[in-house]
Structure formats: structure tokens, C-alpha cells
Design a protein that fits this description.
heterodimer, A: 560 residues, two-stranded antiparallel sheet, B: 288 residues, 12 helices, elongated
Chain lengths: 560, 288
């Protein structure tokens, strides 16, 4: 017994010594820069590379320094064709340095192409001696901006579109659309290859062009290509005496305000997508063809189809909206694209934020006046508060639904809760976030929560938020003119005509029961919070002892 | 052979009236739980699912109220059968709890955990059954009163402060939780899991179960005691005449009261007033 213990102990000691030796050797081998770090096998030859320590500061090389290796494609490809190394930026991002040689060969600048380029045609040789100098950019995007500058050495008039350039916050770089080593040709872009990148970006920003098939078609059709530029058209259309007379007698000015147009989201002075007149109006010749529409309104409605070319998803949404429906039913006054967004003077629709509600005001002026007096409207219009609800926060933007349906009524509490149950948002204004929960716990809220949208006959007869707080005329609850607290009985009597003076106290005023608020409810809750566990525990105890008795008798009394 | 026969020997336990009351209670209580508890736990998925399964919130509220009506009617029926036993038969109220029940409970636990060898000998109604009976009386009372308040908030607040209504809502919900859990833990265990107790269906209980749960009652009957009190026919006839008159008068009054509870208040409007604000009012001069 004792011998076996000693044997085991000896074996353990030997194992421990071996482990320590391996550990020391491994530490020596892997110590950064101390010995060797990478072995590369190229064409059977073994190349030992001594690498600099990571993050070590390398003094900038003076012009007179001799390159260590000649900067040829072969040398670049030997390392960059197959490596798992990455450039690490101070921001924490990383970029693999591997280059897919096959897609490089097939790219617009590959060996097979009309304009083949060598690596250092783009990667300027003086910067790319070996060992490479450490990357100076702080993050990946800055690095991409710096590399894209290379394209302009040959493509001196970059793109006709005015996607924002490197100096802008939302810079769109050459490589974002065209790729870097796998540069796409124009033909490839026109056949739909690579337009996914454009679509991804546009989808993120929820603006037009969110379908790569549509985009490819537009590129094929010549959008963004050379066309009579806007100044050509504006040469005439800035004249103030230009009018169009429609068949029904409408006389409309055809004058375009050059500054307004250039300031618009489609104009030359913005950081978005510049459009030329012809991009929307087609390649009109002079003298122009006669206009087919018989009235100005009809002409406007027809014009909206032009927006659809780039903004199809929003266009489709608008068709399904309450406006689209009205239009479909023959109400030609119903708002479509240009009624809200403008035609030639399209501003960013939500800048400044009160523009949103002023847009709706054009047609819904009385509702706007009520809203302007409300807690939301006053804050928006007087202080430009970015948190308060504008029209679209409740009604939606393009997919504006009919707000008078039962479904809209049933869903409205959730709509209010989107903001009013948001603790971070409400903390700024010292507004309780219990409002939604307490509402749900009340008879009214419970009923609304159970509304079945599949039942066409279902009515939401119980009060929702706006029945008490108002719809467009929502006032602060402590407002002197507020009808809620001062006139709670009157509010109740809207639905409970026989309500008496005590009745309004049946409403818990959104307070969770506590010793201070809704004391009676709190007492009831506390009573049951004691009685239920005691009863359940007591009965449970009896049951458990009875089960114990059965087990005891079955298994232990047999022997007796 | 003899022991088996005597173990299976049946002893009378419940008369038909009590069994009918039990069925009414069982059906209405189950329906009330199934339609009521989902309303309390409406925020849980199961709650919402149950509500939809049973036909939507308006339907289950209707079912809930009808079940409540029959529960109240059943309770009135129980009052009359109790009155019959007390007035016509002059029976003692053997369901009333006393100190002996506390001792029986203590001895049962001591026996269960093995401290005492023998099970306590219990009477016609043992401590557990008395607890359940009075729990039902208490629970039904709370539910009828709070339910009345919830159904008639305007009438209630004309007498009581408004805060009573949300308190009643809270009590109604928690009492339901208490009742349902007590039934599931205690009643279902006692009459189904532990050993099936057929007495509420057959009216009789086998000797073995009588021995375990009602040993004193068993001894009393075996000693020649009558399970029910006998009344001399002439006297009975007299009393029944009074009983029937009283039953008809009070029965109609109570039933009318019950119907009144459910119908007299129109709490809220039943159609929404139409909302027709002028929507399209364009500005005369557009704002830039």
C-alpha cells in the first residue's frame, strides 16, 4: 500500500518536471520577436522572416533608405495571396491583409482586363517597402478613405453622381460601390452585379433605391450618366414668365428657383444624391412635347410615378395608406409624394423636426392648431424638442393607417407606451413609466389587451389613453386647463353617464398600490400576500406529511 | 373473506340534495376559474391564449357572469337545504368547527410523521372537510360581494367610496387564486390522488375509508345509530308546510335579488359616440 503511494508520487514528480521544461521552452519560443514567429513555404523554399515586435514604433524611413525587397507583384503575392494576418487599428477594428488572387485577376484591373494594374500602381511603392510601415490611420474607415484617394490618380473626374465625398461625414468611397481588389466593371454594375452594396446602404438610411434589380435597370437606362445637365434646362426655366396652361384652364408657373433646387435633397449643394432634370423628366427635347394631363392636379399625380423609380418601397406603402385609399376611391385631392415632399424644392423631410408637423398642417390645419396647443405640439414647435411626438410618430409616415378603426383604437395604448413606458426617455421629464402597466391592470386596459383583431365585429368599448388624455389636445396632467384631474367626473361620464361623485375614485390614477396611493387596494393585496402563502403552505404541509405516511406504511411497516 | 366483505361494506354519507349541490358547485366553480383566471393573468401568453380559446374577452365575461348566476342560485339552494335540516329535521350543525378539530389536525400530522401510532378517530365531518366547507362559504361570500361591486360600480360608489372598486377587483382576483390553489392542492389530493372518494357520487363510503377518515361516525352507525335524524311523520308534515311557504317566499325574493344584481345597472354606454372631426382643412396660404 505504502509502496504504491510512493510509486505514484514519483510518477507525478517526473510529469511535473517535464511539464515545467515544456513550459519554459514554449515561453522562450513564443516570446515576441525573440526567436522566430513565422515560417513561410514558397515554392518549396523555406523563408525565415524576422518580424518586428507588434506595436513597436518604427522610425519613418528617409528617402535614401534602400528597399529591402524589390516591390514587385510576385513579392506581394507571395505573402498576401495566403495569409491570416490582419491589420489591427487602434479603434479595435481589424482588416485581413489577404488578397483573393483569382478575383483580382478577374477584376476590372486584373491581368485579363483592358487596363491591368500592378499592386504598386495603386499601393504607391514608396509606402510599401518591406517591412511595411505601420498603418497610421486610427480606424478602418479612415484607412479606406486614404486608400480610395488612389483611384483619383487615374479617374480624375470621379463619378457624375454626387455621393458625398471623403470630406463628408457620410462619405461614400469609390471602393464602397466598385470594390477594391475585385473592382467591378461598368458592365458588371449594369447587369446588377455589385449593386447590392448600394442597396444595403440605401436600405439602412430608408431612402430610395432599395432593390438592386431596379437600380441596375436605372443604371442601364442611363440614370447617373451624362445627360443634358440641369443648368441647360435652367437656362430657360429660371425665367419668371414661364407658365403652363392646362386643358381645364389651370395656369401654372414653370419657373424653377435655381437656389431652391440646388439646396433640395436632389440638388447639387447637398450631401445626398444629386439628380439632373432629365433623371426625372426624361430626355426632353426642345420644343417640348405637349403635356398629356388635362389638369395641374392630374399632372402632379402622374409625376409621382417618377418618384417611384427610386423610392418604390415608400411609394407602395403610400398607395396602401389612408391617402392612397382615398385616391383610389377617386378623391384626387388626397396627398401623394410631391404634396408632402415638394417637387423641385424637396427638403430633408424631417429637418428641422417641426417640418414634419408643418407638412401635415398644409391639409390638416385645424388638427394642427389643436396639436400646437398640446404638450407635444408646444414643445416641438416652441422648443424644437427632439423627444416629443410629431404627427408621424403616432400616424406613421408613408403607411399612414386610418386612425378611426377599432384596430387603431385597440393598438393606441401600445403606441403611447412606446414612449411613455421608456424609462430613459421619461426620466428626462419626470413622467412615470408605470402608466402602461397600471392601465393594463385596470379593467379598461385588460379588455383592450384582449382585443381580437381577427374578429371583425369586435368593438373596443373601454377607454383607451386618448379617451381621457385627449387625442391632439393632450395636455400635461397638472395643467390648470386640463380636463382630466379637475373634471375627472365629466371625463368618466362620457362613457358612464350615470357616474356619481365617488365614481372617479374607482380609477387608480396610474398609481401602483402603496400605503400612500390606493391604500385600500394595497391593504387587500397585502392581506392576500400573507393569506395565500400561509394557506397554500399549510395545506401543502398536510399533503406532504400524508404522502410521507403512505410511503412509511408501504415500505417500512412491512417488516413488522 | 369476511374482512374483505366488511372492508367493502358501504356506509351512507351524503343524501341526494348534498350531491346535487356539489355538482352545481363543481361545474360553476370550474367554469368561473377557467373564465376568470385568464382575465387576471391577461399579460401572460397562457392567459391570452385561454381567452382566445374560449371565444374572446366579451364571450368569456358573459360565460363568467352566467356561471356566477348559477353559483349564486346553487348557494341559495344550499341555504334552503340547510334550512330544511335545521327546521324540519332539527339536526345539529355538525359542520361547525370546534377545538376537537384542531386536536384532530395535530394528531393527524403526528400520525403521518410517525410520532403517533394511531390515526385520530374523526366524526362525520373531519377537520379537513370542515376547513374546505367554510373556505367555500368565505370564498363564495367574498366573490359574490366583490363581483357585485365590479358588475355594478356606479351603484356601489353611490354608497361606498370609489376606491372600493379597484380593491374589489384585486380581492376578486386574489381570492380566485387562493380558492383554485386550495382546491388543487388539498381537495384534489384528498379525494382523487390519495384515494378515490366516491361518496359525493354514490352517496356512500366503503368501511375502510370510513375507518380512516370518520372512525367515530362509523362506530356510531355500527352501534345502531341512524345516519340521519328521523322525525315523527305527523310533526314532519306540519313543519314541511311552513318550510314550503317560507321557501317559496324567500326563494322568489332571493332569485329576484340575484337577477337584479345582474341586470339593474347600465354601467357604461354600449356604442361609441361617432368621431367626425373635419379632417381635410387645407391652409389658405401654404406655410413654407
Amino acid at each position: 500500500m505504502h509502496d504504491r503511494y510512493r510509486q505514484n508520487r514519483d510518477k507525478l514528480s517526473i510529469a511535473l518536471i517535464v511539464l515545467i521544461i515544456i513550459g519554459v521552452l514554449a515561453t522562450l519560443l513564443l516570446w515576441p520577436g525573440l526567436v522566430v514567429a513565422e515560417e513561410q513555404s514558397v515554392d518549396g523554399a523555406t523563408v525565415w522572416v524576422k518580424l518586428p515586435e507588434p506595436n513597436a514604433k518604427v522610425a519613418p524611413k528617409s528617402q535614401s533608405d534602400e528597399p529591402v525587397h524589390p516591390p514587385t507583384d510576385l513579392a506581394c503575392r507571395q505573402c498576401h495571396g495566403d495569409t491570416e494576418r490582419e491589420i489591427e487599428f487602434p479603434s479595435g477594428e481589424s482588416l485581413p491583409v489577404v488578397v483573393d488572387l483569382e478575383s483580382l485577376a478577374n477584376s476590372a484591373h486584373g491581368e485579363q482586363s483592358e487596363s491591368p494594374l500592378a499592386c504598386n500602381d495603386c499601393h504607391a511603392p514608396v509606402d510599401y517597402q518591406f517591412p511595411h510601415e505601420p498603418v497610421t490611420e486610427d480606424d478602418l474607415r479612415q484607412y479606406q478613405v486614404a486608400r480610395s484617394a488612389t483611384c483619383e490618380r487615374c479617374h480624375q473626374q470621379p463619378h457624375i453622381t454626387s455621393h458625398p465625398g471623403p470630406e463628408s461625414e457620410n462619405a461614400v468611397l469609390c471602393t464602397d460601390c466598385h470594390g477594391a481588389h475585385d473592382t467591378l466593371t461598368t458592365v458588371q454594375l449594369q447587369t446588377g452585379e455589385g449593386t447590392g452594396a448600394c442597396v444595403d446602404c440605401h436600405q439602412q438610411r430608408e431612402v430610395g433605391l432599395t432593390d438592386s434589380v431596379v437600380l441596375s435597370q436605372l443604371i442601364r437606362d442611363g440614370l447617373f450618366t451624362d445627360s443634358p445637365d440641369s443648368d441647360y434646362c435652367l437656362a430657360c426655366h429660371v425665367r419668371e414668365d414661364l407658365t403652363i396652361t392646362f386643358e381645364n384652364g389651370d395656369v401654372v408657373s414653370a419657373t424653377i428657383d435655381r437656389d431652391n433646387f440646388h439646396d433640395s435633397v436632389h440638388g447639387a449643394d447637398n450631401s445626398w444624391q444629386q439628380l439632373e432634370c432629365a433623371d426625372c423628366h426624361g430626355k426632353l427635347s426642345y420644343p417640348h412635347e405637349p403635356i398629356e394631363a388635362t389638369s395641374y392636379r392630374q399632372y402632379s399625380l402622374d409625376s409621382n410615378q417618377r418618384c417611384k423609380r427610386c423610392h418604390e418601397p415608400n411609394f407602395e406603402k403610400a398607395l396602401d395608406s389612408v391617402h392612397g385609399e382615398a385616391l383610389n376611391e377617386g378623391n384626387i385631392e388626397a396627398a401623394m409624394c410631391t404634396d408632402c415632399h415638394g417637387a423641385h424644392d424637396t427638403p430633408p423631410p424631417s429637418e428641422p423636426r417641426d417640418r414634419i408637423s408643418h407638412t401635415c398642417q398644409q391639409c390638416h390645419s385645424t388638427i394642427f392648431d389643436t396639436y400646437a396647443e398640446s404638450v407635444h405640439g408646444a414643445d416641438l414647435l416652441e422648443e424644437g424638442n427632439p423627444d416629443v411626438a410629431t404627427c408621424i410618430d403616432c400616424h406613421g409616415v408613408h403607411d399612414i393607417n386610418n386612425p378611426t378603426t377599432e384596430l387603431a383604437r385597440a393598438r393606441s395604448p401600445q403606441l403611447c407606451a412606446d414612449c411613455h413606458a421608456d424609462e430613459d426617455l421619461m426620466a428626462k421629464y419626470d413622467v412615470s413609466t408605470d402608466v402602461f402597466e397600471t392601465y393594463l391592470h385596470d379593467f379598461h386596459g385588460t379588455t383592450v389587451a384582449l382585443y381580437d383583431p381577427d374578429d371583425p365585429d369586435a368593438l373596443v368599448l373601454t377607454a383607451v389613453c386618448y379617451d381621457c388624455h385627449g387625442v391632439h389636445d393632450i395636455r400635461p396632467v397638472d395643467d390648470a386647463d386640463n380636463s382630466i384631474k379637475a373634471n375627472l367626473l365629466v371625463t368618466c361620464q362620457q362613457c358612464h353617464p350615470d357616474a356619481n361623485d365617488n365614481f372617479p375614485d374607482a380609477w387608480t390614477s396610474h398609481f401602483e398600490p402603496s400605503p400612500d396611493n390606493n391604500t385600500l387596494v394595497w391593504l387587500v393585496d397585502t392581506f392576500y400576500a400573507i393569506v395565500i402563502p400561509v394557506t397554500v403552505g399549510g395545506l401543502g404541509f398536510l399533503v406532504v406529511t400524508d404522502i410521507f405516511r403512505i410511503i412509511r406504511i408501504r415500505f417500512f411497516k412491512k417488516d413488522r | 373473506m369476511k374482512t374483505i366483505v366488511s372492508e367493502q361494506q358501504q356506509f351512507p354519507r351524503f343524501r341526494i340534495g348534498a350531491r346535487i349541490e356539489h355538482v352545481i358547485l363543481l361545474v360553476t366553480f370550474t367554469i368561473l376559474c377557467l373564465t376568470g383566471l385568464p382575465q387576471k393573468y391577461v399579460e401572460s401568453d397562457i392567459g391570452a391564449w385561454m381567452v382566445n380559446l374560449l371565444g374572446g374577452i366579451d364571450t368569456i365575461r358573459l360565460i363568467h357572469r352566467w356561471a356566477a348566476f348559477f353559483l349564486i342560485a346553487g348557494s341559495i339552494y344550499h341555504l334552503f337545504t340547510a334550512f330544511y335540516r335545521m327546521y324540519v329535521k332539527r339536526e345539529r350543525m355538525r359542520i361547525l368547527p370546534d377545538l376537537q378539530d384542531a386536536k384532530d389536525a395535530r394528531d393527524t400530522v403526528l400520525h403521518n410523521i410517525g410520532v403517533k401510532d394511531d390515526h385520530p378517530k374523526m366524526r362525520k365531518f373531519n377537520f379537513g372537510e370542515k376547513f374546505e366547507y367554510w373556505a367555500v362559504v368565505w370564498g363564495t361570500g367574498v366573490m359574490i360581494i366583490t363581483g357585485f361591486m365590479l358588475l355594478n360600480p356606479i351603484a356601489t360608489t353611490s354608497v361606498l367610496p370609489g376606491e372600493v372598486i379597484p380593491a374589489a377587483l384585486s380581492a376578486h382576483g386574489w381570492e380566485a387564486v387562493l380558492a383554485a390553489s386550495a382546491i388543487i392542492i388539498w381537495h384534489l389530493y384528498s379525494v382523487l390522488v390519495k384515494q378515490f372518494n366516491p361518496s359525493m357520487w354514490t352517496g356512500k363510503l366503503p368501511r375502510k375509508q370510513m375507518e380512516e377518515e370518520h372512525a367515530l361516525e362509523l362506530e356510531r352507525i355500527e352501534a345502531g345509530g341512524d345516519p340521519w335524524r328521523r322525525v315523527e311523520p305527523r310533526q314532519k308534515k306540519q313543519r314541511i308546510r311552513v318550510y314550503i311557504i317560507a321557501t317559496i317566499v324567500f326563494g322568489i325574493a332571493l332569485l329576484a335579488l340575484t337577477v337584479w344584481i345582474f341586470t339593474f345597472e347600465e354601467t357604461a354606454i354600449t356604442t361609441m359616440p361617432p368621431v367626425t372631426p373635419e379632417v381635410f382643412v387645407p391652409l389658405a396660404t401654404p406655410v413654407p
